[in-house]
Design a protein that fits this description.
Helix content: 25-40%
Shape: globular
Strand content: 15-25%
Number of strands: 17
Number of helices: 14
Bound molecules: zinc ion
Radius of gyration: 21 Å
Distance between the termini: 46 Å
Length: 418
């Protein structure tokens, strides 16, 4: 069955849009309504591409509001790791469903995930109807003798996530250079190239990580990854806060992508700002992520987009850095093709789009891009369509109440109440 959107505004012009087989089949003011097709009247709304959250740990919605205001290591050791040891498939399933509800409500159509029980994540993603690239966290705590464990973990997780399909893509997720041994990282790099899988890793989040890498390996984190063959066009580096000029040049040369997570970086006080302007000067593809709800704590990408833009301007002492249109392109995945969001509203493109309310105080006057980046939050999204399916209409996601209730039950089970 097809879907017709009428009375919508696209780039300031009134238009109609027909969706068939998960794609934008036709675009233009004179498309006729077909009998029996689903129609959305988008009067007072603009069509924009859906947002891409380039880095998160979706099921960590379970831990939202637990261990806030602690240092990263205390938060992990005292709050997160003890509970993660008790997680089961259903906890991860419902935690991910909650993340999906929040992302759908705030306009995210695709996200990059790294978390335990990846099969449960994949099931939740498909049930929610959103798109995700999913990886299980791989690590052996840097123990070279444990190197055999990582290939086993990786193969098992890939089997559980399954083959690439409409909504789900599998990836390899070595946690970080300080939690995965050299041998295991080499194996992951080879597997990524051989099987054409993305390699999703945290890199250069804190200064300690850089200092330790130089101490242990004699080179900085990006150079170390490159030495292991793990820096290439399929590599997605989360954070990259402490990258220096020579690392940026190397990352650009290898065609790897960096996803910045400004809110999580600020909340955990990592002490530096991702060098966005330098990264772009080198031509590095960049994306935006929230990181997990345990350390952000929101998954509303438009809020983070404002923080990103303001932070970069402030850091550069130059308000012309990261203008609104560019920020919006970044949030829709257009500055980083590997993330998989087309960021375009055009015939033949995947039907992953949003209808945003332009008759609101936030978007009622002024340029749309500036309104979205500086004035609005995710609450401005009225309708979210992914792969041609309407996941939210009129600001309501079906089944959201049940998801919240289920997550509360899971939190009680995990002893995470109060
Ligand atoms: Zn992360």
């Amino acid at each position: 069955m097809s879907l017709l959107v009428k009375n919508a505004t696209l780039d300031g012009q009134r238009t109609r849009l027909r969706v068939e087989d998960g794609k934008i089949a036709k675009l233009g003011p004179r498309i006729r309504t077909r009998e029996g097709e689903e129609v959305i009247d988008a009067q007072g709304m603009a069509i924009i591409p859906g947002l891409v959250n380039g880095h998160t740990h979706a099921a960590m919605t379970l831990f939202r509001g637990h261990g806030d205001d602690l240092s990263l290591m205390r938060w992990l050791q005292e709050v997160i790791w003890p509970v993660e040891a008790r997680l089961d498939d259903e906890d991860v399933y419902w935690g991910t469903r909650l993340a999906c509800v929040e992302m759908i409500r705030t306009g995210t159509v695709r996200f990059w995930d790294m978390y335990w029980h990846a099969a449960a994540t994949a099931r939740a993603v498909e049930d929610a109807g959103i798109r995700a690239t999913i990886s299980a966290p791989l690590f052996d705590m840097g123990d070279a003798a444990g190197g055999d464990g990582v290939p086993e973990m990786a193969n098992r997780s890939l089997e559980e996530i399954g083959e690439p399909r409409d909504l789900v893509r599998p990836a390899l997720g070595p946690h970080a250079i300080y939690t995965v041994s050299e041998g295991a990282l080499r194996w992951i790099a080879e597997a990524s190239a051989e099987r054409d899988l993305a390699l999703n890793i945290h890199l250069s989040e804190t200064e300690d990580e850089v200092v330790k890498c130089v101490q242990d390996h004699g080179v900085r984190p990006a150079e170390y990854l490159d030495r292991l063959g793990a820096l290439g066009p399929r590599t997605v580096l989360a954070h990259g806060v402490w990258l220096d000029e020579s690392e940026l040049a190397l990352i650009a040369e290898r065609g790897a992508t960096v996803v910045t997570n400004p809110v999580a970086n600020l909340k955990l006080a990592v002490g530096r700002v991702f060098p966005y302007r330098a990264a772009r000067r080198h031509g590095i593809p960049v994306g935006l992520g929230t990181d997990g709800a345990g350390s952000n704590n929101s998954l509303d990408l438009l809020q983070d987009l404002k923080v990103l833009a303001l932070l970069q301007k402030h850091e550069a002492r130059d308000p012309s850095v990261l203008p609104a249109e560019e920020a919006l392109r970044m949030a829709t995945g257009r500055l980083a093709p590997v993330l998989g969001g087309s960021g375009l509203i055009a015939e033949g493109e995947p039907a992953d789009f949003l209808l945003v309310r332009t008759d609101t105080p936030e978007l009622g006057v002024g340029a749309l891009a500036g309104g979205l980046v500086y004035a609005a939050s995710g609450s401005i999204v009225d309708t979210t369509v992914v792969n041609g399916r309407v996941l939210m209409r009129g600001g309501t996601v079906d089944g959201a109440d049940e998801v919240v209730a289920k997550v509360r039950e899971r939190c009680v089970r995990l002893g995470l109440t109060g």
